[in-house]
Amino acid sequence: MSAQESQESPDPPPGPSPDPLVAAAQATRSLHGLSTELTARVPQLLEAMRSVGTGLELHSTLDRICETAAELADARYAAIGVVDTEGRGLSDFVTHGIGSAQARKIGHRPDGERGLIGALISHPDTVRLADLTKDPRSAGFPPHHPPMKTFLGVPIRVQGEIFGNLYLAEKNGGGEFNDYDVHMVRVLATEAGIAIGNARLYEAATQRERWIDGSVAVTTALLSGGDADDALAVVAEQARRLADSAAGIVMLPAEEGGMEIVAVSSENPATSIGVVIPAESPVVDRLLEGEPVFVDDAASDPRTTSELTSRYGPCMLLPLQSGGRVLGALVTPRARGGRPFTEAERTLATQFASQAALALMMAEAQRDRERLAVFEDRDRIARDLHDLVIQRLFATGLMLEGAQRRSIVPEVRDGVGKAVDELDVTIQEIRTAIFALQQGPAEAPSGLRTRVLREINMAAVPLGFKPAHRFLGPVDTVVGELVGKNLIAALREALSNAFRHAEATRIEVVVDSTITLADGRPGVRLEVADDGVGIPEGGRRSGLRNLRRRAESLGGASSYGPGLGEDGGGTTVVWEAPLQPAV
After folding, report:
1. Each residue of 412-421: pLDDT tens digit?
2. Buried b / exposed e across 210-247, counting CB within 10 Å, b at 16+?
3. Which of the residues 130, 271, 318, 346 could staple to 353 if both were Cys, CB 3.0 to 4.6 A apart?
4. What is the rounded average pLDDT for all residues in the chain?
């Protein structure tokens, strides 16, 4: 073995994971027959092995191994390079001896794809060098890196597979790493492999437990019967926390194609909500087909490059699918320069997305059942109103009409007649309510009733009283949107005329969607009647002309006649149009 530079023989090929005690015995068996110096260091080795085996958190275990190896070999610097899942580079690099300030100046950690570190990944053998800068495999140091000459590298195996390499540099006192150091560090590497294996198992179990708890939290939130948007926000928040990502994003298919961001958990979610990823995006196409997409750097990947992804690095885009149906997508990006997602994280996140999709479908089915129960109850109420209440009111009206005919007192007959009229109005209003109750879930109301009532309430302020109103037929469901807008404009014009010119004390508004127009088409009629002064001869009729033009543009008509006052005093404006305008 050269005094300047030497390379140890390769470690034995990997085999089954040894029992910790057997491994330690095998590793220390080579110590027999060596010098008293090495024997004297055995207690130090045993203490180092005990220290390495303490604790189960993986990163703290790696820190502890580096520190212990540096003490054992009397080295100034130590590091562990963790090989990535593909075995071509490093997924993590833990150091000892380099302060955090100096590490920030150095910048990026080694990637393991070149230089001496890369060579040791390709050929995981024990390497001892007197001057690593003279080794042909060396690629030099980045700026601000401390100078290093003496070097010792030992592979770490976990359950028979290469986990990474343990690197030591700059033996204190200016000497070189000797045979005793090699033996000691090899034994420590064996124990480190066992400790890392245990830490990995513990971390995997803890990680699975966290993802399961997150899935339970999402399922509970979705099935709690709360607001759907709040439930999607819980999915985004849990995904961000579990994936240790910079953001959690939920996207749903957009009406115009592509996918729309509907829930975001991040430092500034408002800037993303409502953004639509176009259907032309290759990522959207993959997601809608139910395929997950994993991106190493979202900012530079051509499939995801946009303003939203410019600040993100590794990213998982997972379809929310269940039973072959894609409900949306879940996105968990990490910040630029963040560590890539491991294979275990990808698997757990995919399972979480599937569980969230199943919970979404269950929540949707639960809401459908609740809506069905509501509609069934409304249908029952509508039947009761029709079969019981209206029939009783009708019978009461007949009884009152009979009493009216038999009465010989004029005041009584007039009073009974007014009561019968009120019953007729009440019956019509109940029938309107029945129409509204019988609307199906797909028959989203256009809001025409609401808009009519809003206009009436607004007119009540300047009038000093609230106009009476009646609705006949299912006005919310049969009147087209264009006709509804024009009807509201006509109502506003008629109420304005009644306020400005009629001096009315009583106004009645009737909207009837059950009429048939002169040409045989089904239509809607608006009547606004008042008891005011009427339309004087020679007075302005610009408002009436506007109503007529508006109706005729839709294929309808407008007219006026006697009002509600005595002997027909006042005015009744009639505005008619087809339920749907001609195309």
Report:
1. 778 888 887 7
2. ebeebbebbbebbeeeeeeeebbbbbbbbbbebbebbb
3. 318
4. 78
Which pLDDT belongs to residue 168?
92
Terminal Cα distance for the chain, rounded: 97
Residue 178 token pair: 């000797």
φ, ψ of residue 152 to 5 degrees: the values are -140, 125
Rounded-to-integer distance, Cα 111 and Cα 154, Å: 18
Cβ contact 28:44 at 8 Å: no
Burial class (CB in 10 A: 0-12, 13-18, 19+), 372: exposed
487 compared with 21, residue with greater pLDDT? 487
pLDDT > 90? residue 257: no
Q: Which residue has the higher pLDDT, 294 or 207?
A: 294
For the question of whether the overall pTM of this predicted structure is more than 0.85, the answer is no
β-strand 248-253 against 127-129: which pairing, if any?
Answer: unpaired
Of the candidates 221, 201, 225, the residue with the CA atom closest to the CA atom of residue 213 = 221
Distance CA(483)–CA(511), nearest Å, equals 13
Q: Which two tokens stand for residue 3?
A: 């005094």
Mapped onto helix, strand or coil, the DSSP state of residue 560 is: strand
Give SS3 for 438: coil
Asked if residues 490 and 451 have their Cβ atoms less than 8 Å apart, the reply is: no
Which residue(s) pair with 155 in the sheet?
A: 165
Give the C-alpha separation, 251 to 288, whole Å.
Answer: 11
Percent of the chain with pLDDT over 90: 8
In the block, which residue shows the tokens 């540096």?
70
Cα torsion 332, 335, 341, 345: sign:
negative
Q: pLDDT band at 308, cuts 50/70/90?
A: confident
Bridge partners (DSSP) of residue 75 are 171
Asked if pLDDT for residue 43 goes beyond 70, the answer is: no
Work out whether the CA dihedral 368, 371, 373, 376 comes out positive or negative: negative
- Asked whether the beta carbons of 529 and 508 are under 8 A apart, the reply is yes
**Residue 88: partners with Cβ closer than 8 Å, 6 or more residues away:** 112, 113, 121
Helix (H) or strand (E) holding 78: strand 75-83
CA gap 108, 144 in Å, rounded: 12
- Model confidence at 240: pLDDT above 70: yes
Tokens 């608006």 -> residue: 526
DSSP letter at 340 equals P
